[in-house]
Amino acid sequence: MKTLACLMLCCGLMSWPLCGQPRYKDASLPVEERVEDLLERMTLEEKILQLNQYTLGASDNANNIEEVTARIPAGIGSLIYYEENPELRNGMQRRAVEQTRLGIPILFGYDVIHGFRTVYPISLAQACSWNTDLVREACDMAAAEARRSGVDWTFSPMIDVARDGRWGRISEGYGEDPYTNAAFCAASVEGYQGSDLSSSTQVAACLKHYVGYGASEAGRDYVYTEISRQTLWDTYLPPYEAGVRAGAATVMSSFNDISGTPATCNAYTLSEVLKGQWGFGGLVVSDWAAVPQLIPQGAAADRKEAARLAVNAGLDMDMVGHCYDNYLDSLVREGAVSEERIDDAVRRVLTLKFRLGLFERPYTGEVPADQRLLLPQNRELAERLAEESIVLLKNEGGLLPLQGQRTIAVLGPIVDAPGELLGSWSGHGRGEEVYPVRDALTEEFGGTSQVIFHAGCPFDGDDRSGFASALEAAREADVVVLFMGERRGWSGENGSRSSIELPEIQEEFIVEMQKAGKPMVLVLSSGRPLALQRVEPLCDAIVEMWQPGVPGGRPVAGVLSGRVNPSGKLSVTFPRTTGQIPVYYNRRQSSRPRQGLYQDIPSTPLYEFGHGMSYTSFEYGDLKLSRESVTGGETLTAEISVTNTGERDGAETVHWFISDPACRITRPLRELKHFEKQVIPAGETRVFRFGIDPARDLSFVDSDGNRFLEPGDYYIMVKDRKVRLQVY
Fold first, then answer.
1. Which residues are catalytically annotated?
2. Same domain membership, residue 148 and residue 39
3. Total tally of structural domains belonging to the chain
4. Using one digit for the tens of pLDDT, what is the confidence trace for 468-503?
5. Pair (273, 350) in one structural domain
6. Which residues contact 440 (CB under 8 A, 6 or more apart)?
7. Which end of the chain is more exposed for a tag (fewer CB within 10 A), N or C?
C-alpha cells in the first residue's frame, strides 16, 4: 500500500496518463489539453523561438540566403525546407526532438504552388479548366509528394484577385474574379489537407497573400496599394473568408501597404477581421522578411519597432526576418508586448504541430524517389488538368483541328525550350522531365503529316538570322503553327512587366511568316493574359496553352490534332493593348455609359472573361426560375438546358451571374455566383442548375463587412439569357 501511495504521489495518476510522462505527450488527449500543458512548461525563450522561421537547404530563389545548419537553434519553430529528400530534414528534426528540453518538433514548409516534383499547370491556367474536382485531386497529389519528401506545410494557395496582367504574380492565382478565387481556394485547401491533417500524405495549406497584393500599383511587385474599405470587402477579402471556412490551417500576410498600413502590421485585417470576425484559430506567418521590410515601407524606424508592430497587430510567425528572435524578449520584458499575446501566437504554432501529428511521427520515412515522385498516375493527372486548362481563343474557318495536312511547319522559340513550360514557382520540377513540344507534335502527327521544326526567332532580343529559313519552311508547309510567348521567369514574383504585348521580335516574326500566305495557328505559352491586338488579325486560330508543367507539349498536341476537344474558358480578361489595363468583367457602371470610351481603340476587351471555344457547338435553351419572387428567407432554383448540336462530345461550362441594378451601394454590372462544367455527348442535352439562396447570392457587404439583402429587382444571367427575380 505504501508503494502504491508513493507511485500515485510521484506520478500524479489523476493528472498524468503515464508515470513520468507529461500530458502533452499523451496522444489520447485532446489537442487543446496537450497544447496548454506544453505551453505552461515553456520558458519565454522557448516560446519566442517557436515564432521564428529560418531556412534549411539551398534554393535557386534570389532572395534565399541559406542558414548555416549548425547555427540553427534546435528549438526553432519552423524551417523552410529546400530539399526533395527527407535526410537533411530528419537530421535537423532529431536535434529538436532528442536534444532539447521539451522535444518540440520543427514544422517544415515549402512553396508547393502548382506541384512538387510533378509540376502541373500554373494556377491561372487551372482556373480556366473550371474543374474544381480536378484541381482538388492535383493538390492532393502534390501534398503526397511533398509530405513524403519532408514537407509538412505548403505556402499555397495564392488567392490574390488580380486585374493587372503586368503584375507577374497573376500567374500564381485564379484570375480576376472573387468568386472564382474562392471556389478554387476551397478546392485547393481540401486537396492539400484532406480529411486528416496528420496523414502521411497531407500538408497544411496557407492562404496568401493576405490581403490586396493583387492590386499592386501599376502592376509593380511589393508596392503600395490604394484599396477602399468597400473594395476590400467586395473584391479582395471573399476568397480568404472562403479559405478560412474551408478549414485552412494557416494564412500568410502580404508585402503591400493597404491604404497606408502595411499588411504585415495591419491590426484591422489580421486581428479584427481574420481572427475576430471570422474566428480564424490558425497560424499567421509573414511573407519572406516582411517584418524588417516595414522599415523601408516607412512604418517602423528599426527592427525592434517592426517586431512590436507586427506581433501586436496579430502576426504570429516571422519568416526569416530575424526580428522576433532578436527583439521579442526585450519587448515583453519592457511591457511593449504582452506575454498573453506571445502565448496566443505560440498556442497557434503548437496546435498546428499537434494536428499534423508531428509529436507522434516527427520523422519522414526515407522512401526512394522513384516510389514517391513523378509517378505515372501523377503525370496522367497533370496532363488531364493541362488539357482542360487550354483555351481555344480563335478558330476562323474551322482551321482547327488540323486534319489532312501533308506538311506542318512548327516554328517559334518554345519548340525546343521545354523548361520554359514549367512556369514560375515550379517546386522541384526539372526541365528535362517536361515533354518537349517537338517530341509531342512528332508523336501526334508523324504518322500522317511531315512536320518541319524551326525555332525561327528567340524569345526576345534582336537576332533575326533565323527569319529567312523559317519563312522558307513556312512556304513549304500547308499550315504554319507558331509557338510563341513568355519565358518562365517573365512572370511570378518580381516578374512585373511594363507591356504585356509579345516582345517586338516575336511580333515581327509573326508578320514575316504571314508572307508565306499559309493558314497560321498561334499557340501561346504565358504566365499572364497577353495583349494581342497587333497579331490577332494575322492569325487564323489562336490557342492559349499557358505554362502546362511537366505534360509540356502533349496536351496542346492533342488539341491541335483533335484528339482533345478544348473546353477551357478564360478566368481573366485579355485586353487589346496594355494601355487598356485594368479591364475586367465585373466593373461598375459609368455615370455616362455611352461616353468615357477610348478614342483610338474599342473599349471592349479582345477576349472577355469566360471566353473559350470548342470543336463542337452548344445551343442554350431558356433560362427558367422555379419561382419569380421570393422573400429573403426563401430559396429557389434556376436552370438552363444546353444541347450539344455538333458531331463530337464536348464539355461546356455554364457561368451564372447576378445583377442588382439599383442598390444603396452600387454593384458591378455582373457578378459570378456559380459555375458548373459538364460533359455533353454529341446530340444530347444536359440541364445545369443554380440553387439560389438570396441571403448568400444576392446580398452585399458594406465597408465594415456587414451583409445586407435589399428588397427589389434582381437579374439572373447566363450568356445572353436574362430573367428577373423579385425579392420582397
1. 287
2. yes
3. 3
4. 999 999 999 999 999 999 999 999 999 999 999 999
5. yes
6. 552, 553, 554, 556, 557
7. N
